[in-house]
Amino acid sequence: MPVISFLSAVLFLSLLPPCWGGLPLVINTWSFKDATTTAWKTLNSGGSILDALERGCAQCQSEQCDGSVGYGGSPDEKGETTLDAMIMNGDTMEVGAVGDLRRIKDAIGVARAVMERTKHTLLVGESASIFAENMGFAAEDLTTNKSLDMFTKWLNGNCQPNYRQNVSPDPLTSCGPYKPSAVLQQRRSVQHIDIHAHDTIGMIVINQTGNVAAGTSTNGAKHKVPGRVGDSPIAGAGAYADSAVGGAAATGDGDVMMRFLPSYLAVELMRTGTDPTTACQTAIKRIKQHFPHFFGAVICANTTGGYGAACNKVPGFSSFPFMVYNLQSTDPVQRAVDCI
Ligand SMILES: *[C@@H]1O[C@H](CO)[C@@H](O)[C@H](O)[C@H]1NC(C)=O
Ligand SMILES: *[C@@H]1O[C@H](CO)[C@@H](O)[C@H](O)[C@H]1NC(C)=O
Ligand SMILES: *[C@@H]1O[C@H](CO)[C@@H](O)[C@H](O)[C@H]1NC(C)=O
C-alpha cells in the first residue's frame, strides 16, 4: 500500500470515536457472551437480522443466563417461572411479544411467532401459552430444583422481599393472602437492590446494510406478584428498532423503567443526531430525575455502527458490562461503562 494512503488510513482510524467498529454489529446487555457469538454466527452464515436476534436470545434462554433469562429462574409468589420476550423488526416496525408466558421455554421464539403468525403485537398469560402450543412449541415445566429451592427459602424467610404495599397483613411480616388496607401509606419497603433480580438479555443486531432488529428475553423479577409483566416485552421500553436510525434495549427495574420508554427515547434522540452514548445517558437521566435510586442500564447503537451504553449508579452497581461483536475482532468483546 502506498505510504500516503497507509498514513491517511491510520489518520482516519485514529479519528474514529472509540465506540465505533462498522457494520455488521451485534450488541447485548451484560456479559452474555455466547448469545453474542450465536447472533453473530447466525448473521454471518446468511441468517437474517431476525434470525440472529432470535437465536442469540434463545442461546441465553437455554443457558439460563444469570438465572434471569429462561426457565428455572425468578419464581413468582406461587413459585412459578413465567417469561417475557419481544422482537422488533426495524425495517417494517413490526413487533411480536409475550408477557407472563407459562410452560414454554422458548419465549423469544413465541414472540417471533406472534409477529409473524398473527396481526397482534403482544399476547399474555395462559392464552399466550395455548397460542404457543398450537404453533408447535413444547409445553414443559419451567420449574427446576434451583427455582424450587429459591422459592422454599423465600417462603421460609417470611416471603421477603416482596412487591406488596398498602395491604394487610403487613407485607414485611407476613406472607398473605393480602387484602387492600384501609389507609394508603407511604411505601415502607426497605430499598433492596438485587442486581441479579432484574437481568434481561437485550440485544441489537444491525447487518451490513444497516437494517436493525432489537429484542429481549427475561424471566422477570424474582418473587413478583403473579401476572406481573415487566418492561421487556413492551415496545419502546424493553427494546426499540428503526432501520432509519438504530436500536436500543434496556435492562433493570422494569416496573420503573417501562414508564419512561427509555429505548424509544434513545432511538428518537439518535434520530436527531445524538450519538449513542449520549442518547443512552439521557434516557437514564430522565428516569433518574424521578427515581434517583432505580437500578437499570440501556444500550444504544446507530446504523453506522456507533454504539454506547449508560447505567444509573447505585450502591453495588457502579459499572455495567455489555458485549459487542463487530469486524474489529474475531471474538465478542466485553465492554463496560461507568454508571452516571
Ligand atoms: C432434583 O431433586 C430431586 C430430589 O429432590 C433429584 O432426584 C433430582 O435428581 C434433582 N434434579 C436435578 C436436575 O438435580
Ligand atoms: C440486511 O437485512 C435486510 C432485511 O432486513 C436484507 O434485505 C439485506 O439484504 C440484509 N443485508 C445484508 C448485507 O445481508
Ligand atoms: C453513530 O455513532 C457514532 C459514534 O458515536 C458517530 O460517530 C456517528 O456519527 C453516528 N452516526 C450517525 C448516522 O449519527
Tell me what you see in this structure.
The protein has one domain (19-143, 192-338): 4-Layer Sandwich (Glutamine Phosphoribosylpyrophosphate, subunit 1, domain 1), CATH 3.60.20.30. With 340 residues, the chain is α+β, with helices and mostly antiparallel strands. Strands 4-3-2-8-7-1-13-14 form an eight-stranded mixed β-sheet. The protein has a four-stranded antiparallel β-sheet with strand order 9-10-11-12, covered by helices on one side. Helices cover 30% and strands 22% of the residues. The mean pLDDT is 92. Strand 3 (94-101), helix 4 and strand 4 form a beta-alpha-beta unit. The protein contains nine helices and 14 strands. The site of one 2-acetamido-2-deoxy-beta-D-glucopyranose has 9 residues, from loops. One 2-acetamido-2-deoxy-beta-D-glucopyranose (NAG) is lined by residues 48-49, 91, 207-209, 211.
Ligand kinds: 2-acetamido-2-deoxy-beta-D-glucopyranose
Low-confidence stretches: none
- Please write the string of helix (H) and strand (E) elements: HEHHEEHEHHEEEEEEHHHEEEE
The CATH class designation is: Alpha Beta
- The Rg value, from CA coordinates, equals 20 Å
Q: For the record, give the distance between the C-alpha atoms at the N and C termini, rounded to a whole number.
A: 44 Å
Tell me the number of helical segments per DSSP (H or I, 4 or more residues long): 9
Main sheet characteristics: 8 strands, mixed
Give the strand line-up of the largest sheet.
4-3-2-8-7-1-13-14
**Beta-strand percentage range:** 15-25%
Instruction: Assign the CATH architecture.
Output: 4-Layer Sandwich
Q: What's the total count of β strands?
A: 14
Mean pLDDT comes to 92
Q: List the domain count as a whole number.
A: 1
CATH homology group: (Glycosyl)asparaginase
- Helices and strands: which structural class? alpha+beta
At CATH level 3, the topology is: Glutamine Phosphoribosylpyrophosphate, subunit 1, domain 1
- Gross morphology is globular
- The share of residues in helices is 25-40%
